[in-house]
From TrEMBL:
Keywords: DNA-binding, Transcription, Transcription regulation. Residues 28-47 bind DNA. SUPFAM superfamilies: Homeodomain-like. PROSITE patterns: HTH_TETR_2. It comes from Pseudoalteromonas luteoviolacea NCIMB 1942. It comes from the Bacteria. InterPro entries: Homeodomain-like_sf, HTH-type_TetR-like_transc_reg, HTH_TetR, TetR_C_Proteobacteria. Pfam families: TetR_C_7, TetR_N. This is HTH tetR-type domain-containing protein. Residues 5-65 form the HTH tetR-type domain. Gene3D superfamilies: Homeodomain-like, Tetracycline Repressor, domain 2.
């Protein structure tokens, strides 16, 4: 690794630590330079703004998140069990410490920065990397009847996020019976009640 790449990584790692402890708004570029043990000029040589640094931090964090395998629709396998596999993998991601850490780093900034929110919204992670393609294939084999695949994919994931991810992010508890397995099963059952071909 070149010295320049090494310094860039030092800056990203220092910023990740500081952003997750203090938030991006409360972290100065001076503090990032000091923590990374580089000059402020070096920080700005790599990142022309705090926003650019935050993008790099989030991208770097995403590379270290275990996103699971890409699941491909299999016509001779039960659609319910395939959707359960997808939901279980997504639930693991949404409840993982690395993913929650990214959310905490990005959350306040996203509220104040519509461009960053749009950028991250277009970054496909977890099952959103393949779910639309999966649904198109399931649609083609008449296992489901979905007119708007993008909407249906988001509907599936957002239900999981609502009951698995957001309570953890905000630190509030759900009813005891609403454990992860319950939410996964209800998500799949609700989805199939709407879209499965009888």
């Amino acid at each position: 690794m070149k010295l320049s790449e090494k310094k860039r990584l030092q800056i990203i790692q220092a910023a990740e630590q500081l952003f997750s402890e203090n938030g991006a708004q409360q972290t100065s570029m001076d503090l990032v330079a000091q923590t990374a043990e580089v000059s402020k000029r070096t920080v700005y040589n790599h990142f022309d703004s705090k926003e650019a640094l935050l993008y790099a931090v989030i991208e770097n964090m995403l590379t270290h998140v275990e996103q699971g395998n890409t699941l491909v629709y299999t016509p001779d396998k039960c659609i319910r069990s395939q959707l359960l596999d997808i939901a279980k993998a997504e639930a693991l991601l949404l409840s993982s410490d690395p993913f929650l850490r990214i959310a905490r780093v990005a959350f306040l900034e996203l509220l104040q920065n519509p461009d960053m929110a749009a950028h991250l919204n277009n970054t496909k992670v977890g099952c959103m990397r393949y779910l639309e393609e999966f649904l198109v294939a399931a649609n083609s084999s008449d296992a489901i009847n979905v007119e708007d695949v993008t909407f249906a994919a988001k509907q599936f994931v957002f239900q999981l996020k609502s009951f698995i991810f957001y309570p953890r992010l905000y630190g509030f508890a759900l009813e005891p019976y609403m454990d992860q397995e319950f939410v996964i099963n209800q998500t799949v059952e609700t989805f199939l009640a709407r879209y499965q071909v009888s």
